[in-house]
Amino acid sequence: MGRLRFLARRLAMLLATLLVSSFIIFSALYLAPGNPIAVLSGGRTLPPESVKVLEERYHLDKPFLEQYAIWLGGAVHGDLGISIALRQNVSSLIAARIWTTAALVLYASIIIVLIGVGIGLLAGLRPGLLDTSAVVATSFSAAIPSFVAAILLILLFSVRLGWFPVLGNGTGLWGTAYHLTLPAFALAISALGIVARVTRASVREELQREHVQTAVSRGIPYAKLIRRHVLRNAAIPITTITGITIASLIAIAAVVERAFGLNGLGAYLVGAANSKDFAVVQGISLVLVTAFVVVNVIVDILYAVLDPRVSLESKAE
Amino acid sequence: MRGLGERRAALALGLAFGLFAAACSGRSVDDSATPSGGAGQSIDLATTTPAGTQPVDSIVWSVYRETNSLDPIYAFDYPENTVLSVLCETLLHQEPDGSITSGLADLTYPNDTTMVFTLKPGITFWDGKPMTPDDVAYSLERNTDPKLGGFYGATFDFVRSIKATGPNEVTIELKQPDYWLAGELASTPGWIVEKAFTEAAGADFGSAAGGIMCSGSYKLGTWKTGEGVQVVANEAYWNRDVKPLVGSILFKGTPDEAALTSALQTGDVNGLYSFSLSTLNQLRQDPNVSVTDGAGWNSDAFIVSSFDGALGDVRVRQALSLALDRQGIIDTIYKGAALMPKALSPPGTWGYGREVFQSAWDALPDMTPNIEQAKQLIQAAGAAGKTITLGMSSELNNLAVEAGAYQAAGEAIGLKVKLKSVSAANYINFFIDAKARSGIDGFFTTNYGDYADPAALLGTLVLPTGSQNYSGYSNPQVTKLMNEARATADDNERAQKVADAQAIIMQDLPWIPNALPNSEIITSANLTGATASFAYMFAPWANDLGGKS
Fold it and tell me: Do A93 and B225 touch (CB under 8 A)?
């Protein structure tokens, strides 16, 4: 019952968020200077008659609120509108790209969790040379923005070594995994460093805590001690930072997708926003906002699973 | 446990330092320009590359952004034209050297105001249906359908009617003689599509959902937006003299120049047409990549968009032009791969009357900087200390370079130069929005006409009704010569009139030429046969493309 109420409340919040954000994004795009028709002109002058026909076709000649109402009316009926540049249904354009972004973010998340949390745990539990190396390496990786990582990875692994392709999505499960490896590392590398450092710090903190010291003095086996007393308590901050970074990957993915020529939502959003392709920007924003909210709900549920004291019922106050 | 942990951390550390090392030792981009041009430069650039001989399974071809619509009436930019020219065919054909020959049809002029097109026998669309005069008339008329709002309606201004007049014949009746229309029909407005297919596709025609139906040597394969347009060799191509060697071409949008350059080096991308690629010299030195300097048809110019300010005085325009460091622009933006201009239209556009245009070009003065003379012109015009405002975008490197060159030129001769910078996405508004142009004296463009004729670009900017005549420039002599040229049947006579108009235009400078960019064809070293000139925008360029033996 409590879980259901929690989900219902979150769903209502999601809908409200979507409505508000769609209006804000639409307004911002409307206010930004530029003309959506310009994308078709390639830097030369279009005949005014053609511009007029196209503006009527895409309702660009209507007042702002009417344009938004037309879009919203369509959206609640599941019609996200037509892309001006590609003259195609926005839903089908999103459907064609969403799995690339989803796969990329998932791949990067796996890297972050396995390698980031892994390094953090080892560094936290094993002081000495290993810990120092990990601190240096993670400081370094945390400071590499994704677009730099993309260039460096392409230079080293594609141009120099020829191990991975520079561009494209690939086909089939293995083809996709192969093509997405460099992009996923480029996306993960900075977040990986941050997650590793937070993990290391929380493990260190737990190790110093009295109950752990007591457990050590009681002769509890090392593996059990780590599992039951250290990791269990360190899990909350680790989950938080992992959740936040993964949610942020959804936005950063745009940079990586562009650098690797991937057919994903992020790169498409950037292109569409530049050309003021209203319906596309609105559609993709809805998807990204939803994904962001869903990731946060998952993190909240994980809290409850990890720590029985946390109740899904309680409101954040 | 410990060992594994150490290995893992060491791996991470190694990865980090490996990247660092790669960053430090990475190939540096050679920014030094190859020496070029100046006086006595050769204006003879390649129009073709040696035909390929070996079959090639599939290649990836780059375009600067994703292809939007493949409906010919909306094709207005490089990606759409690059793809459409291998798929669809025009009524008349534009050869790589710009000359116009028979395409799908032979053209005769029974009189000055009648054009009769006789379709070649046996032409079929990809679906096997024969091409009929109905398809031709339908395709041409789509250009002028007000409901469709196509971009080429104005080129049919002089057309009274387009009618199927026989089993293989289409007749265009003109209101007055128009010898420019043939050029247009060898270009984007002349692409013929199948009527039945187009009507059935309705609003989806030309999109990834609806596709197109043409008659070219390549046909539309799979088109997933975002991943690219794939075209495949048309085994049943009606013209048996042409056998495409490349099985399929995937046209992929690659907006990122760094990624594009890497992809060319690794073979992930096998070719592209380009001008002003910042990594051109790096690619020239790469043994895996082949670069050919092709004849360009486009012009890099400064558009004087308003005559209300200081630039309204022709002497100030001349002075600005005299003070401009064009070699700097050519070296910085084009890495040397551009011609020093003498006129607005490059030699690549001499599709007819070559000798006439050549001697007119030789007679035009070199555009060598002369600050002293420029200062005298400013004094004579009483313009010293006046301010001019240039529209530009500091986000676009090439525009920033050009605006800098104009600023230096203006200040060297006593003008004050203000720059009005807008975002990259909004730069386009200078072209399409009069409000965006208010308060500025001019902005920069790289522009081209629809076919190989200097008049094709000039007409848009010097005629009072020209679509790119922003300043309201009007010189009765120029207008008269241009209109006479349009009505002149003989090639050399027509060329002479255009050349005479051009000489006046170069005095009046409604636009100031900056450089005449080459059309660079960049491919994997083992590929050859693509058209080298700018004709690739309008005519099949991959018919001879293939592997080297």
Answer: yes
CA distance B252 to B223: 10
> pLDDT > 90: what percent of chain B?
77
Among partner residues B16, B265, B429, which is closest to A140 by beta-carbon distance? B16
Query: Are B16 and A137 contacting, i.e. CB atoms less than 8 angstroms apart?
Result: yes
Q: Which residue of A has its CA nearest to B422?
A: A33
- CB pairs below 8 Å between A and B: how many? 207
In whole angstroms, give the CA distance from residue A42 to residue A39: 6
Across the interface, of A38, A156, A261, the residue whose CB is closest to B432 is A38
Name the residue among A87, A93, A275 with its Cβ closest to that of B425: A275
Q: Is B44 exposed, middle or buried (0-12, 13-18, 19+ CB in 10 A)?
A: exposed
| Comparison of pLDDT for A136 and B481, the residue scoring more | B481
From chain B, the residues in CB contact with A276 under 8 A are: 425
Q: B203 and A156 in contact by Cβ < 8 A?
A: no
CA distance B118 to chain A (A): 31
Band the pLDDT of B20: cuts 50, 70, 90: very low
CB contact under 8 A, B428 and A138: no
Under 8 Å between Cβ of B70 and B212? yes
Q: Are B82 and B66 in contact (CB under 8 A)?
A: no
- With b meaning 16 or more CB within 10 Å and e meaning fewer, what string describes B313-333? bbbbbbbbbbbbbbbbbbbbb
CA-CA distance, A104 to B144, in Å (whole number)? 46
CB contact under 8 A, A40 and B263: no
- For the cut 90, the answer to whether the pLDDT of residue A10 exceeds it is no
**pLDDT value, residue A312:** 65
Mean pLDDT of B409-426: 88
Contacts of B262 in chain A (CB under 8 A): 154-155, 158-159, 166
Q: Cβ contact (<8 Å) for B432 and A37?
A: yes
Q: Give the mutation candidate from A82, A113, A167 for the B interface (greatest B CB count, under 10 A).
A: A167
The pTM assigned to this predicted structure is 0.82
Query: Does the beta-carbon distance from B207 to A87 stay under 8 Å?
Result: yes
Contact present, B450 and B183 (Cβ < 8 Å): yes
pLDDT in tens, A216-242: 888 888 888 888 788 888 888 888 888
Asked whether B192 and B88 are in contact (CB, 8 A), the reply is yes
Strand order in the sheet with B169-174: B105-111, B114-119, B169-174, B159-166
Contact A40 B432 (CB under 8 A): no
Nearest to B419 by CA among B398, B384, B391: B391
Pairing of strands B387-392, B527-528: unpaired
Across the interface, whether the CB atoms of A47 and B432 are under 8 A apart is answered no
Residue type, B94: Q
- Say if residue B236's pLDDT is above 60: yes
